[in-house]
Amino acid sequence: MRVKKLTAVELKKLIIEAMEEGHHKKDELAEDAETAAAAEKAETAEEEAEIQNESLDESLQLERWKKLAGLLNS
Length: 74
Hints:
Blueprint: H1 8-73
């Protein structure tokens, strides 16, 4: 097996490419983390909206029962 010796220019080029590739991977990881955080925030907001809707539904139902009770007492 023959090993090719690299010149200083070739070695520098390889090092720069590796550093740039690492930088791109770092950016991808940061984007993935931001996406995950946004998804979690959206899920939390959706859960809170669902809880508010349930409370509103219960409140409306209670008002309907009160009106019905008022009609029955008349």
